[in-house]
Amino acid sequence: MPAPVPRSLVVILRTMLILAATGSLVVLAVILPLLWIDLEGVSMAYAIPLIAALALGVACLQVVGVCIWRLLTLVLRGRIFSRSAFRYVDVITGAVAAGGVLLVVIGVVLSEGTAAPGLVLLIGGAALLAFAAALTVNVARRLLAQAVERDTQARRLEDELSDVI
């Protein structure tokens, strides 16, 4: 049987999630309103999609953080290899993919303005990385499904063996 995940590791990860969540709230409550003020005089057709995409991107990150928190709870309870983990992994995949789409939207909006082409290319590269991360999480989900299936088979065989004995 594999060694359990050390509780200290879960505490460190949760501390990082709390710091990230706090930072995301600062972005939503302070940074984005300040950016909105800085965009005064800029076309609303430019400012609204940009601010909306940034806010939705932060929301996607918050969703990922909540799902990771829930997965860590399953880890602590020794239930990570269960079907209940699938919904969190699926939501993470969707949120990361949505973040990639939002990065594409931000790149398109910036390309219409005076943004440097290099910045638009960097955002496009970040979008590709987000899509790659979503696919990687999808692969991890498939591995989780295999592990859950094997665990189910092992339990069934143990039950059959105990009936025989």
3D architecture notes:
InterPro entries: DUF2975. The chain crosses the membrane at residues 12-37, 43-76, 88-110, 116-140. It comes from Citricoccus muralis. Pfam families: DUF2975. This is DUF2975 family protein. There is one protein chain. The protein has 165 residues and is an all-alpha fold. It has one domain. 86% of the residues lie in helices and 0% in strands. The protein contains 4 helices and no strands. It has helices spanning 7-38, 44-76, 84-112, 117-164. Helix 1 packs antiparallel against helix 2, helix 2 (44-76) runs antiparallel to helix 3 (84-112) and helix 3 (84-112) runs antiparallel to helix 4. The longest helix is centred in the C-terminal third of the chain and has 48 residues, at 117-164. It is elongated, with a radius of gyration of 21 Å. It starts with 6 loop residues before the first helix and ends with a helix. The mean pLDDT is 93.
Q: Provide the domain count.
A: 1
Q: Could you describe the largest sheet, including whether it forms a barrel?
A: none
Q: What integer value in Å does the Rg equal?
A: 21 Å
Mean pLDDT: 93
Q: What is the β-strand count?
A: 0
Looking at the structure, what is the overall shape?
elongated
The percent range for strand residues is under 5%
DSSP helical segment count: 4
Low-confidence stretches: none
Overall SS class? mainly alpha
**How far is it from the N-terminal to the C-terminal residue, by CA?**
22 Å
